Amino acid sequence: MRYLTVGRPESQRRDLLVTAGLAILALFIAGMNLESRLAVTRVVRSTVLAPFLAAHRVFARSTDLSEQVASLTSERERLAARVLESANLELENRQLRIIAGLPERRVGEFAVGELTAGAPEAGGSHTFLFRANADVELLTPAGISSPQGLVGVLRTAEAGSGLGEFWTHPDFRVGVRTPDGATTGILRPYSGAGGETLMLLDGVPYQTSIAAGTLLETSGEGGVHPPGVPVGRVLREESTRSGWSHAYLVDPIVRPGQVLVGLVWLVRPLPAAPTDSLADSSRAPGGEPVPPAAGPGT
Amino acid sequence: MDVERSVWAWSALGISALLVLHFLFRPFLVGLPVAPHLLIGALLLATLRLSAGQAAAMGFVLGILEASIALEGMGTYALALTVVGYLGARARDLLFADARFYVFGYLFIGTWLADVVLLLLGTSPPGAMRLIAGGAIDALLTAAVCTGVETLTSSVAERQV
């Protein structure tokens, strides 16, 4: 007989104990926070899995290279045209700010890095691994986008790499506005007919309507995402709570599987302000302190 | 070299080859509508020769590796493959007869059940049709590939001795 037969009772008990111990350990790992899981993932990926991941990168590069060149060329041309267009706007904005006595515009910087989407065998992926240079200091949560639009949120980071969640994650929320700023709302992932993952714009006031095809971009509220990042286009109205609000289906601009490079917003901390002026500004006219706004997208 | 040791060594080689193929071609295999589950197949082949505790430990380690490459469900994969390893070895203890047909049936049913366990534990399990149709074809492919590997390694080992 080539295969093992039934073990003795004591070895069966030992096997059961070993299995129970491992099952408890697995449950403990499942309950670990993102930072701890990131640490384990990094150790495994940089040791045992390193040769396989290197091979994956080589395969991906060799198969996607011609597509990437074409896409980068067209993107570069679009960007060059946009830079030319915005040069005058930038100057005008600077001059108007000087006239109005406003400080320099805070845009923040972006860290560019490689984005690896999770690929579970079962179900869809909501998680990605972001890897930038080790000397980049990433503060979390931070919005992550591609040149096309919003990708998701970086949840945890250490030494330039971190784990994040795509906008498809059930807990994802982001504050958005129309480009003219007339309408704002909160977007969340939504499973459309046929199981396709779309977005739902909730809480639009009843008297406001948004035309199909309207672009929605991040409002910047909450400080997680920079303002003005394209998120999606309105498809149609999904539901109406009579007399209260509308909800619109939104077609996302970025699909998780398409993204290979991500831009993480490096939020610059606010400049230190005198304590007195902060205290004054955080008080409502009646003298009561105003609680900080709870931002979406966190 | 005696028969047992030779068969063991060649089986270990076959199982290692399946695991290397799984991790090497994973991005390609995951993208296909139906594909063999080489990881589960390799684990089930290993359960034919390991004790239940050893099989569970192997399942646990493979679960951690799989979750690290998938970036999702670290504890879930470890738990599911630990259970698959233990139950696979126990089922072998209770049911097995030494014949190719049994190996094929064991791998087919084992892969299908493991697939169901993984889908049920997954964060966003697809519908029942995927479970029944896709899972069955995946399991059939897995059983075919892994039975082929098992037959090859066994016959090479026996011929060598």
Account of the protein in words:
The complex is a heterodimer of chains A (298) and B (161). With 298 residues, chain A is of the alpha+beta class. Among the domains of chain A are: 17-46; 106-268, Rod shape-determining protein MreC, domain 2 (Thrombin, subunit H). Chain A contains four helices and twelve strands. Chain A has helices at 9-30, 34-46, 50-100, 275-281, and strands at residues 109-117, 127-131, 142-145, 150-158, 161-166, 174-177, 184-191, 197-205, 215-218, 230-241, 245-252, 261-266. In chain A, the strands form two sheets. A six-stranded antiparallel barrel of chain A has the order 1-2-5-4-3-12. In chain A, strand 10 and strand 11 (245-252) form a beta hairpin. The longest helix of chain A is centred in the first third of the chain and has 51 residues, at 50-100. Chain B has helices at residues 3-31, 38-47, 52-70, 74-95, 100-121, 128-160. The interface between A and B is large, with 54 and 56 residues.
Main attributes of the structure:
heterodimer, A: 298 residues, alpha+beta, Thrombin, subunit H, six-stranded antiparallel barrel, six-stranded antiparallel β-barrel, globular, disordered C terminus, B: 161 residues, mainly alpha, 6 helices
Concise structural overview:
The complex is a heterodimer of chains A (298) and B (161). With 298 residues, chain A is an alpha+beta fold. Chain A is 31% helix and 28% strand.
CATH class of the domain at 106-268 in chain A: Mainly Beta
Q: Major β-sheet of chain A, in short? A: 6 strands, antiparallel, barrel
**Percentage of β-strand residues of chain B:** under 5%
CA radius of gyration of chain B is 15 Å
Order of helices and strands of chain B: HHHHHH
Our measurement of the CA-to-CA distance between the termini of chain B, rounded to an integer number of angstroms, reads 7 Å
| End-to-end Cα distance of chain A | 59 Å
Helix content of chain B: over 70%
Class per helix and strand makeup of chain A: alpha+beta
List the helices and strands of chain A in order. Answer: HHHEEEEEEEEEEEEH
What fraction of residues of chain A sit in β-strands?
25-35%
Largest contact between chains: A-B, 54 and 56 residues
| Main sheet: strand order of chain A | 1-2-5-4-3-12
Count of discrete alpha- or pi-helical segments spanning 4 or more residues of chain B: 6
The number of helical segments of chain A is: 4
General form of chain A: globular
The profile of the biggest β sheet of chain B is: none
Tally of domains of chain B: 1
**Overall pLDDT of chain B:** 83
- The pLDDT mean of chain A sits at 78
